[in-house]
Amino acid sequence: MGGKLASGPEYELMSTPSKPDVLHTTAGDLPVEEVELSVAERTWTIRHTGVVISREQENEFLLGESASKRPYGSVLWPAAIALAHEVASRDLVGKRILELGAGTGLPGIVAAALGARVVQTDRQKLVLHVCKQNAERNGVTTIEHRIADWTAWDDTERYDLIIGSDILYAEPLHPSLRHIFETNLAPNGTVLIADPFREPSVRLFEAMGADGWKISIDKWTVGVTPPPRAVGVYALTRAR
Predict the structure, then answer these.
(1) Alpha helices, DSSP H only, in the chain?
(2) Domain extents for the chain?
(3) What is the pLDDT of residues 130-169, one digit of tens each?
(4) Rounded to the nearest 5°, which phi and psi values hold at 105?
């Protein structure tokens, strides 16, 4: 993802060649899987180190034995799937889009294929490597990929859309994210954040609403095994 936390392992690609189905990292080998998803009447192939849809899968990832073995961004999360469907429902031709904490990259890849000019960012080289691979595997070659840390942000460009999937889980990073929203959003632009209704996220949206941001929400459900996961896609715009 895009922010820098005080604790937790660092993941970087090792220089030794990796097999197609394994990412060799300083934290150990990470098996890579592949999933096909249908978005915008097209099938997309996404490589990842795991799919986390249900709350049970999420609890195992965050709290179980595998909690420290895979970087958050190399996993395919329900918020990314919901955001991909949301961006596919919009007119994106010619729009400038910044994706924060791009992870496996699905929303930005869909947006670029639909005519947007996309910049995908992530803090970890490993995750951005997977993100770039996924763009190439789907024939999308127009995306710009950047290593970026939310706490040391130096991008001054303006974007029509700033998007992110499940990026608000760490409350200490909220001031940095708000700085990016306020600095990099173009006039009349929109911030689109997909989130599975996490409490820290709701608190941020409430604070931004109190500060004059206009907020609307579309609700998506992801997954076919009952119960499906509910994800909100929040659209934030500055009050005129």
Answers:
(1) 55-63, 78-88, 106-113, 125-137, 174-184, 199-210
(2) 22-238
(3) 999 999 999 999 999 999 999 999 999 999 999 999 999 9
(4) 90, 5
Quote the CATH superfamily of domain 22-238: Vaccinia Virus protein VP39 (3.40.50.150)
Kindly tell me the burial class for residue 117, based on how many C-beta atoms sit within 10 Å of its own C-beta (0-12, 13-18, 19 or more): middle
Cβ count near 86 (within 10 Å): 21
The amino acid that residue 225 corresponds to is T
Compute the distance between CA of residue 197 and CA of residue 217 in angstroms, rounded to an integer. Answer: 11
Mark residue 42 as left, alpha or beta (left: phi above 0; alpha: psi -120 to 50; beta: remaining). beta
Q: Give the whole-angstrom CA distance, residue 150 versus residue 155.
A: 10
* Threshold 0.70, pTM exceeds: yes
What separation in angstroms does the CA of 52 have from each of 56, 74, 189, 194?
9, 11, 30, 15
Length of the chain: 240
